[in-house]
Design brief:
This protein is an alpha/beta fold. It folds into two domains: 122 residues, Rossmann fold (3-Layer(aba) Sandwich); 110 residues, Rossmann fold, CATH 3.40.50. It is built from ten helices and nine strands. InterPro entries: 4pyrrol_syn_uPrphyn_synt_sf, 4pyrrol_synth_uPrphyn_synth, UROS/Hem4. It comes from Haloferax marinum.
């Protein structure tokens, strides 16, 4: 039964992990909350530009707290969560790509940015795909690091559970969550056992880049949702994991 699906979730230890736990509960799974990301703000704000690109809800919230506004810039958000946060801040969101990835943003903006200034404001772990793609499209691109993503002290209980065969599902929401999970496992001397445990479970990745990172470390990914949102990821993973554990 789905109640037996113990699902590890690695979102930052704020309202995102709380919402993830609530959602997994509502789907009949047993959430294993193991935050793998902590946010360290840099207190930087974007430079003036014709286009401003934001790639996370966290970035929006930090800029809103700092009193920043997009002004006359064309505001581009990578996906619905970022766009929703921007609208909550009272900003007008001008552009959201059909595909919620760096490559999707490049494809969406490329026809319009030749000769334009583009400010990309994000974490210190942003994909180079976005910067290179926009520059190749003729844009004058500048990047501002709004925050650093670090691994919280004490993270890794899910790695122990995976190694012990006590995890039925894992939901990775970025390449960094994969890397931090493996670092936490390595610290405990159980990296290979944790990977083996994941490969006996149902592993979900929020998008292709996360799947590729997992695969490069020997982790088999079973689920990549059609829409790159946590809700879609959780629903698909629990649905796949639940039948495996029927009695």
């Amino acid at each position: 039964m789905s109640q037996q699906v113990r699902a590890a979730v690695f979102r930052p230890d704020d309202d995102r992990i709380e919402a993830a736990v609530e959602l997994l509960d509502s789907l009949g799974a047993t959430p294993v909350a193991d935050p793998m990301l902590a946010v360290e703000p840099t207190d930087s704000t974007p430079e003036p530009a014709e286009f401003v690109v934001l790639t996370s809800k966290t970035g929006v919230e930090l800029l809103d707290e700092a009193g920043w506004t997009p002004g006359d810039a064309v505001l581009c958000c990578i996906g619905p969560a970022t766009a929703g946060a921007a609208r909550e801040a009272g900003w007008t969101v001008d552009r959201v790509p059909d595909e919620y990835t760096s490559a999707g943003l490049v494809e969406h903006l490329a026809p319009d940015v030749d000769g334009k200034t583009v400010e990309v404001a994000r974490s210190d772990h942003g994909s180079q795909v976005l910067l290179v793609g926009l520059r190749d499209a003729g844009a004058d691109v500048h990047e501002t690091v709004l925050y650093r993503l670090v691994r919280p002290e004490g993270s890794g209980k899910s790695a122990v559970m995976a190694a012990d065969g006590d995890l039925e599902a894992a939901l990775f929401t970025s390449s960094l969550t994969v890397e931090h999970f493996l670092e936490a496992a390595a610290e405990r001397g159980i990296r290979e056992e944790a990977i083996a445990g994941l490969n006996r479970a149902v592993v979900g990745a929020i998008g292709a880049p996360t799947r590729e990172t997992a695969a490069s470390h020997g982790i088999d990914v079973d689920v990549v949702p059609d829409e790159a949102t946590f809700e879609a990821l959780a629903c698909d993973v629990v649905e796949m994991a639940a039948p495996t554990y029927h009695e």
